[in-house]
Design a protein that fits this description.
- The structure is a homodimer of 392-residue chains.
- Helices cover 48% and strands 11% of the residues of chain A.
- Chain A has helices spanning 22-26, 41-44, 47-57, 74-87, 98-110, 117-122, 185-203, 211-233, 238-251, 267-278, 282-296, 300-312, 322-339, 359-367, 381-391, and strands at residues 4-6, 11-14, 32-36, 61-65, 91-96, 134-137, 149-154, 159-164, 172-175.
- In chain A, the strands form 2 sheets. In chain A, strands 2-9-6-5-3-4 form a 6-stranded parallel sheet, with helices on both faces.
- The radius of gyration of chain A is 20 Å and the shape is globular.
- In chain A, 56% of the residues are buried.
- The interface between A and B is large, with 39 and 39 residues.
Chain lengths: 392, 392
């Protein structure tokens, strides 16, 4: 078990009706907030009205930053920073999925810097005074509402980068599972695949003696497997939506890694390049790449881990040959994703990836300045290309 | 799954050597701290020197409140409050088990009230300005280093009461498993029984659909079962001490209850009366009462839960009859505690409880002003007496 630091200061209100507290909580942070959301689905589900009514009742004014897209863009961050300054905004309220919350975090982190937001993304030391955030997630996926990180996309340079800073934890997260009822089957499946990947990227870091962390991650993954299937088939199942929303929050906030060897994630950096070049829905790319990656890195070292995953998470019977169990685990996971309606190759995923012409540049960018991705199994550029090809 | 509020703002540094950070962290809270510890075992294990050297290096002065006893006394709280005021202390640093940390919390909570500390224990609204705390636990048991509650004993009135306030979360917890190496086999066993009880008191609250919470608690309980045995037999096993110290911190800070129906604990209030009247080591009383309570409340409702506990935590094979599985689970747990050296009845536990003469008054006090303990199975005064008798 490794040394570690743990801090998740976000306060969470969870359950039916909790969003109506937002005005009362917002008052702590001044008299004007910025609502940050997408195309307006929050109006259809009643979330927008709940929020603005509660703000009005508590005397909190608001401005709006709208049209946030999946794989959110740095241009929206610049726009948000300018609006926050002009309007004297003291609080950011993202209402939506990870894209909205991540946009809010980037605005929060770039607010204190007088220059293009992308400068801050490339140089975290420029993060000064952060605006506070109250997050209202409407999708169980990134867990961005209880962590300190954000992913942001620069469409001009085809780059997707992370901003991470301890002051970016939302002050509050208001999680009402009923606001996730309207998420489509496809987006539900992508979200759960993303949650699972956040957990698996940590779980597969082989660490002697991180027993508690490993067993907790198995508990989380079992939750995803069980309720992913239920939510895909019965979208208004409260129990499923509630368990998924809570496990999403905990899958990515650092708790799972307590005691594990911190090694670089493997599947996420590969997917970020597909998103950067093809605007892939993140969870779809993750689901496709995960099983391709698992098959590619199957060796004496990973077979143990994948077999344990199969037995402890997927309830497989172990066989004497760990490779056989590991392969069954990968097949079972692939079938699970397929049963949720996720295509299992990039070609059929509808993102316009029809040939392998960009695999080389994507692999180069995934690896970055290093000569490999130092995940639980190090991946060279060649390895990354091979995994893209296997997933094609 | 029930609505809930979650907040655990304590920052934790975990692992070998982390206590040497204490001076640097203490500086955030002024120039004078109060060390709070017991009989001086912290000097034998080198913890005292590490702490005072780090404080000195960082220019932090300190005063000392010593001789804190198990089932800590309110008189020590009054003494601590007076000392803190006289010396202008800005930070409390408990070094020890739950007794030291709970004493620190009571001092923190009573500091802003000008009168006897017991007034505050009886009336939480008197808690005003709380002194900050940096906790250094030397025992895996209460988890007081990452929660907002404290138990305190009034020896004059034979009362053991809880103080709970959101401002009582330690600001930091510095958890070095090596400082728990010297804990005796007996105290190790008592500590793990206490951790298990914190988890089981929540786990056995039957709640539809709190799947994630239940599976996480099983992960925690499996950790206790595995490493309780290892630590009892191999006290310097780092992996065991580390997993136990981390699970203790999470067993009692509110995380396990997220989504569960909040019902009153059953075994703890019964044990608190044994502690109040016989100064019982808390974890010993807990271990003895737990299996007696389980046998007493075994019914159609609890048999399901105890059987699930047996299968998912103790790895028992389920049988067709849930009662049979539940009984095997209770027997297995009793044998586990016995294998750790914990006596399985009060008579033989060495606390001077040689007859049932106080069971009636203890039962009355356990129930308090209500007519029963509204745990997962409500317990009348008669029930409590019967459980004491069964445990006798």
């Amino acid at each position: 078990m490794q040394n570690f630091y743990y801090s998740v200061p976000t306060k969470a209100y969870f359950g039916k009706g909790v969003v109506s507290k937002i005005g009362e909580l917002a008052k702590e942070f001044g008299s004007k907030a910025m609502l940050i959301y997408g195309k307006g689905s929050i109006k259809k589900i009643g979330l927008y009205d709940t929020v603005v009514n509660s703000l009005k009742e508590n005397g909190v004014e608001y401005v709006e930053l709208t049209d946030i897209m999946p794989n959110p863009h740095i241009t929206k961050v610049d726009e948000g920073v300018a609006l926050a300054r002009k309007e004297g905004v003291g609080l950011l309220i993202p209402l939506g999925g990870g894209s909205c919350i991540d946009t809010a975090k980037c605005i929060a982190g770039c607010y204190g810097y007088d220059g293009p937001a992308w400068d801050v993304i490339l140089n975290k030391s420029l993060v000064k005074e952060c605006l506070p955030i109250i997050a209202v997630p409407t999708l169980a996926a990134t867990g961005s509402d209880m962590d300190a990180g954000a992913m942001i996309h620069n469409e001009a340079t085809h780059e997707k980068k992370q901003l991470m800073h301890p002051d970016l934890f939302p002050k509050y997260s208001l999680l009402d599972p009923e606001y996730t009822y309207s998420v489509s089957k496809k987006q539900t499946a992508f979200g759960v695949a993303d949650i699972m990947s956040h957990i698996m990227e940590v779980y597969f870091s082989k660490t002697e003696g991180a027993f508690l962390a490993d067993r907790i991650m198995e508990a989380m993954l079992k939750t995803c497997v069980k309720y992913g299937t239920i939510a895909c088939n019965d979208p208004k199942n409260y129990e499923a939506r509630a368990n998924l929303l809570w496990v999403a929050a905990w899958g990515c906030n650092g708790f799972t890694g307590c005691g594990k060897i911190p090694c670089r994630w493997s599947v996420h950096p590969l997917e970020h390049e597909i998103a950067a070049f093809y605007n892939d829905p993140h969870g779809q790319g993750i689901a496709i790449l995960t099983t391709s990656w698992m098959r590619y890195v199957l060796n004496d070292y990973t077979a143990d881990m994948f077999a344990t995953f199969g037995v402890n998470v997927l309830d497989l019977e172990p066989s004497a040959d760990k490779y056989e169990t590991a392969k069954r685990a990968i097949d079972t996971l692939e079938n699970l994703f397929r049963s949720w309606g996720i295509p299992q190759n990039l070609r059929e995923s509808g993102i316009g990836l029809t040939d392998d012409s960009k695999f080389e540049i994507m692999a180069e960018k995934a690896i970055g300045a290093a000569d490999k991705i130092n995940g639980c199994v190090p991946l060279s550029k060649e390895d990354v290309i091979n995994i893209y090809k296997a997933a094609f």
